[in-house]
């Protein structure tokens, strides 16, 4: 019987997988890379879409409400939570939120001002500055909230975890 040092016997026996998987690579290493790629993509999309959305202002007479910033935070928190639940890992949720925050920070440093935070000098409308600050600093809160939601949702899904048992 041929023997592969890395994979064991190449002839499948009862209860064992064959040494060669004809379907291609699989297993925990590939799942981990998919989760990391999904977290990075989710963070980038949340940052870019949230940056485009945060500037939407609802005007009611003289009152201007930065509802776009709140909607952008809900979007980012949802994406962060989804990434963590999809991968079943709070670390992936943290990676997604961290990626979003880094992308937002890089976008805010661009010469074309996309996020107004009040440090650009005189001129920007106060509501736009408020929306920029809500988006910029609220993203950290949305990340922490997404991680907390993932932790609470995944608590019972751990192998050998603290899920209640019936008697």
UniProtKB/TrEMBL annotation:
The superkingdom of the source organism is: Bacteria
Sequence segments annotated as region (Disordered): 1-25
Q: Where are the transmembrane segments?
A: 35-57, 63-83, 90-109, 129-154
* Swiss-Prot/TrEMBL keywords: Membrane, Transmembrane, Transmembrane helix
- Protein's name according to its UniProt entry: Uncharacterized protein
